[in-house]
Amino acid sequence: MFKKISLSIILSVSLLSVNVNADIWQSTKEYTNQAMFWKNKHLKDIDFQNIYPKSFYKKSYFGFVITGVAVVGAGAFTYFTAGAGAPAAATGASTVAAWVAGGGAGSYMAGLSTIGSWFGGNAILGAAILNGISIGTIGGGVSKFAALSLTGKAGVMASVTAIGLDGVAYFLNPDTKNLEYKVKVTIPQNLGSKDTRKLVSNLYNTDDNINDALEDGDRSKQKALFELKKQYNKDGIKLLKQKLSMSDNQEDLIVLGIIAWNNSEYELFNQAVSKINSEKLDNTGFLNYLYALQTLSQGNTKRTLAYLDDSIDENPYAIEPIILYINILGNKDFIRNESKIESLVKKATKNYDSDKYATGYTLTGVYYRTATFYFNNKRYVKAQQYYKKALDELGFLQKYFFGKQLKHTIQLGIANSLYSQNKKARANTIYEEIINDIDKENSNEINNIKQQYLGNEK
Length: 458
Known about the structure:
It is a single chain. By secondary structure, the protein is an all-alpha fold. Helices cover 60% and strands 3% of the residues. The protein has 21 helices and 3 strands. A 3-stranded antiparallel beta sheet has the order 1-3-2. Helix 13 runs antiparallel to helix 14. The longest helix has 28 residues, at 219-246. The radius of gyration is 21 Å and the shape is globular. The protein starts with 8 loop residues before the first helix and ends in a 6-residue tail after the last helix.
């Protein structure tokens, strides 16, 4: 029996982007020019560097939940507006929900709400993702989490972690019965007119408060904040409709279009993107990424990959196009696309540069996702190698001080990959290292690791 796992992924993933190296400070002249640039009504270039510019000064981390997210699929899902109450999750999926929220009283609903909020929805959406993720992750027509083997369940748990690290979910839509994507798209800050910037500021502040409420276990505050965020999103949709008929401000169209995307308002998103004039732009790396999302939502993966190729060619330093590319290829036919996936990982390793633009994603997420694809396809040697790459990518603080739960989760992937190769002695050694590295008073995490480790299967 797969026991309850209650690992707090929120703090771990929030600390994923800790950068032990100090940010490269821009010169006063550069910063002044950048500030003046944002006053323009039309962007000079629609690339990742201009959409997500590095601030003159920024925190050394990005909170996970603050990123805006989007649903990719054929139309809005009915469960976005479903009534209140605890939605039913497939047998065993409640285990995953409790694990995400850290366990304890109310963790089931908190976990579902957390997963739903990652992708612009609520607990209803969170339940739908968990109910359908085993098909998208494992394949073979298995629709119930409880029906999977212990190794299969470990694969699903790893996939949920991967979702948190790279912002892409692939699952069965309970309404259409089709496998569909959800992709997180960060809402740009300090872009657009005054009312647009104010709205974005409210969304970011609310998400910060949600993150705090989740860490504090304040269920009533969580509920109130999720409702507030829902209202702000509605305000964003209303504002976009006004902007579409009143102005041709490219900055507003991009920001509010992304908010529409996050809320499954695909027609409005398409209208916003279609009004953007790329004729005089020298660089359209981010715009091509938006085009890729458009075509993916329409089910045209061939055209999506073409747009992603263009985006990568123009902005090789950006990691988001490669993340989506790897997920599409891996979910479509991982074995057939293995060489292409590995070439994309190598390209990211060579070219990704977080100093060029503000992003909450890192190579850790790319490596962890690739490792999990290998693990779920029973390629345990490769899985071990890529989990090791993900571990090596973590910063010093994450390994030894803050966010150690993420380190332990990645190490567990290495241990389970070794155990699946029948290298039990080495797997047990890593498992013991994990247990010994956890504070003794943190009994929840110790129990979680014990229950996830394949070597402890009864």
